[in-house]
Amino acid sequence: MSASPNLYADPPTRTDEESFETLLAAPGLRVERIVSGGQASPPGFWYDQDGDEWVAVLKGAAELRFADEPEPRVLAEGDHLLIPAHRRHRVERTQNPTIWLAVHLAPR
Amino acid sequence: MSASPNLYADPPTRTDEESFETLLAAPGLRVERIVSGGQASPPGFWYDQDGDEWVAVLKGAAELRFADEPEPRVLAEGDHLLIPAHRRHRVERTQNPTIWLAVHLAPR
C-alpha cells in the first residue's frame, strides 16, 4: 500500500501547461509538486512573492535566475535552494520533464 | 552554481548511524534530509510525535508501520505520506541507502 501520487510519476494529464499538485497543506505552509515540460517564465516576467519558497529539482534540470545576479543558477537533479520573499526571480529554462518539489511558506 | 548538499548525494560521513541534515528551518516547520543505511526502529519502539510529519522516499525503499494497522506501508521511490501527530509508528525496514525528505510541522 503506497502513497499517491508518486513524486516521480508522470503528470496526471499531458498538456502544454505546467502541472501543479498540492501534496500537503497546513497552517503557514504548502508543499507542492510541479511538473514542467520545457517551460520558462515569459520574457521580462519576474516573480515577486510575499513568502519564502524552498524549491528542489527531483528530476530533470532547470535554470533559475535571480534579478540581482548576472547569471542563472543551474539546478541539476537533487539541487535545491531557498527563494527569499521578494527576491525577484524567473525560470530561464527547464528540461522536459522537470519535477520540482516546492515548499511555500506564509509571509512572516 | 548549484545548491548544497545535493538531495541525492551520499551522506557527509559514512557511519553506522542514520544521517540527518536540516535543509530549511522556519517558524513552524523544518525540512530535513535523512539517509538511512538499513536501520529500523528498535524492537518494540514506537514514535509518538507532537507535530505532524510529512515524509517522502527520494531514493531506496522502506516499510513504515502504523500501530493501528496490521501491516506496514511499503514505500518505494517517490512514495510519500503524512504521519499525523500522535499516530504511533515505527520504521520496520530501510534499504541501504534510503534517502528521505521529511517536513516536520510544529504542534498546532
Explain this structure.
Chain A has 108 residues and is mainly beta. Chain A is built from no helices and eight strands. Chain A has strands at residues 19-26, 29-36, 53-59, 62-66, 73-75, 80-83, 89-94, 98-105. Chain A has a five-stranded antiparallel sheet, with no helix packed on it. The N and C termini of chain A lie far apart (38 Å).
- Secondary structure category of chain A: mainly beta
- As a percent range, the share of strand residues of chain A is over 45%
Percent helix of chain A, as a range, is under 10%
> Number of DSSP helices of chain A?
0
Counting DSSP E segments of at least 2 residues, the number of strands of chain A comes to 8
- The geometry of chain A reads as globular
Layout of SSEs?
2 copies of one chain form a homodimer.
Chain A (H helix, E strand, L loop, with lengths): L18 E8 L2 E8 L16 E7 L2 E5 L6 E3 L4 E4 L5 E6 L3 E8 L3
Antiparallel strand pairs in A: 1-2, 2-8, 3-6, 3-8, 4-5, 4-7
Features:
mainly beta, homodimer, 108 residues, 5-stranded antiparallel sheet, 3-stranded antiparallel sheet
Quick overview:
Chain A has 108 residues and is mainly β. Chain A has strands at residues 19-26, 29-36, 53-59, 62-66, 73-75, 80-83, 89-94, 98-105. At the A-B interface, strand 1, strand 3, strand 5, strand 6 and strand 8 of A face strand 1, strand 3, strand 5, strand 6 and strand 8 of B.
